[in-house]
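USER:
Try writing one entry.

ASSISTANT:
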Amino acid sequence: MCLPLKTLKREDAETLTLEWILHVKHYKLTLNRKLCVGCEICSLACPKEAIKLVKQLKTVDGKAQRARVDIALEKCNFCGICDILCPYGAIKVTLNGEHVLNVVEKESFPTLVRDIQVDTTRCPVDCVECEKTCPLNLIHVSWQTPDGKVLEDISSLSDKMREGLKVNVSVDKELCPCCRICEFKCPEGLIRVRKAFYGVIRIHPEKCPEGCRDCLDVCPITGTLYLSEADKKVHVNELFCVYCGACKVVCPVSEALELRRTKIMHTPVRSGAWNKAFERLASPLEITKELKAKGSLKALDSVERRFVRRVT
């Protein structure tokens, strides 16, 4: 006998929610539209093709708007792949209220590596540059007194009172796309960030419509795209690009903007599900490289195992 399944889809300006409600299991997917930038990662990665990007009309003053994500309830199986790969942490999948992802639990899919290191032991007490420059407001600087009291503001403290304060720098890693702006803006060089996504982005000015700034309008990382005074065209500062594809989605001329993902930092995994997702996210050349690397590791592992057996 089949257990009754109740399905729900609710949407408002800030949230899209999908639910499967069974007798003992309650699956829930929540898309936070405040965090979503309308990039293409989730739609490409979804194995069920349940996620679509809907282009939006420009604002009254002619600015492009980020694409709107829609998820088909009848196609979604709450696997959590979109949750895992969203660079901005905009999607959360839960089971019975807990953030449990079956594909991770079963070791059939990796998790993103967001490697962000801050040496707070050397941070100047009066520096909050990383907090000020984070384009997504994900960094918070606070201070701790020798007796353990946490201070949120030290502007009124004298130099004498600031002595002995310990600097705390907290980064919301679940939402951080690892753009590296904080690393480059830190005046002391105390921050190290390794990107989660690597790739190549190029804007071909000869194909870019004159006066078009759609990609610049939607890019969530300040300083990645900029308008050149020389030719009045949009150019790229690739140091800060996270290769999410929000710009590519809104570009009116497909050949004008080229974006390829070449590498994704993830936890170790040997999985057909991951290989298929990577195929949809990256270029064929990079897929071949990763599969060859995995094949080499597998061969090395096999040799090591045979060696161990011989020795023992």
